[in-house]
Specification:
With 297 residues, the protein is of the alpha/beta class. The protein has helices spanning 8-24, 30-40, 45-57, 63-72, 83-100, 118-133, 159-167, 204-207, 241-254, and strands spanning 106-112, 138-140, 143-145, 149-156, 169-171, 189-191, 199-202, 210-214, 229-232, 261-264, 276-281, 284-289. β9, α9 (241-254) and β10 (261-264) form a beta-alpha-beta unit. It is globular.
Length: 297
């Protein structure tokens, strides 16, 4: 028995979802289609047809198109999500990086698809803790002090998520940002004066080394290159195969050729022949760039 023809509303929703896949890499699935159909149902059909044509012609950084994406995507994460991964970074990956970069005394890290900033601030905290563990920084009453240069870039497609990340303020109500926070990292978040007790801000020593920009992983190039560590987690699960390959080319191209590292989500895999060696931890994996390895897939 053949499938029923889509209604005019469903047909327009599918056109928009094809546009979302082309511009943002997000694959078309039934839950996303239902969500978009509910959003579009509030518009008269004649108005909707004109609006869909306008969105299809819009650039990926236009306000109208970005508003659509922000209504469709979920920017939900929390601090130190997947603790084995973060322990592997702190105990193995970052100490090795610190040893490799001891002469330059500088680290550059990129958190791609950072949503509202938890992943990027988590990288900053881990880097500072790892420097202190290695004797390259000292713990004081005001935080961790080091003469190393640390630069953490957090990027996301959503303007709203980037704005929230820059505020560095997070709540703990319901399924909040601190719902699985290890006790060892609790002092990195300070209560906000005059605000409900459940809201806290990232400590100053981590905040000052993190910056945020809007960036689309479907663009032809990364925002910058030469990163010592590139992290992109729980992002590509929303991509189709072609979009995942495009994003991976960008991520790989951003990793420093002299022993930079790449970390991905638990279900993400590098393609055959990628210029990296795998380093396994306990329920965690990271990839180190082979010396002289080329960036292209």
């Amino acid at each position: 028995m053949s499938a029923p023809f889509p209604t005019p509303l469903e047909a327009l929703a599918r056109r928009l979802l094809d546009d979302v896949r082309r511009k943002a890499g997000i694959r078309h699935d039934r839950p996303l289609e239902r969500k978009l159909t509910r959003i579009l149902a509030a518009m008269p059909l004649a108005v909707l047809e004109s609006w869909v044509e306008q969105i299809e012609a819009a650039a990926p950084d236009s306000p109208d198109w970005l508003s659509l994406i922000e209504n469709l995507t979920i920017h939900e994460t929390y601090f130190f999500r997947d603790q084995p991964h973060h322990e592997h970074l702190r105990r193995h990956v970052l100490p090795r990086l610190i040893a490799d970069r001891r002469d330059a005394r500088a680290l550059r890290l990129w958190s791609a698809g950072c949503a509202s900033g938890e992943e990027a601030y988590g990288l900053a905290i881990l880097a500072l803790e790892a420097l202190a563990d290695a004797g390259a920084a000292r713990r004081t009453g005001d935080g961790i002090v080091t003469d190393w240069t640390l630069d953490v870039l957090g990027t996301d497609l959503s303007r709203i998520a980037v704005r929230q990340a820059r505020n560095a303020c997070y709540g703990d109500e319901g399924m909040g940002a601190f719902r699985d926070l290890p006790a060892a990292y609790a002092n990195w978040f300070v209560p906000l004066a005059g605000v409900a007790e459940s809201w806290r801000r990232v400590r100053d020593d981590a905040r000052r080394i993190v910056r945020f920009e809007r960036h689309n992983l479907m663009e032809s190039a990364p925002p910058e290159t030469g990163f010592d560590l590139v992290s992109c987690r729980n992002v590509m699960i929303y991509f189709d195969d072609d979009s995942r390959d495009r994003a991976l080319r960008q991520l790989i191209g951003a990793v420093a050729p002299d022993g930079g590292w790449l970390t991905l989500g638990a279900t993400d895999r590098l393609p055959e022949g990628a210029p990296f060696e795998r380093h396994r931890g306990e329920r965690a994996v990271a990839y180190r760039r082979k010396p002289g390895g080329e960036g292209a897939l």
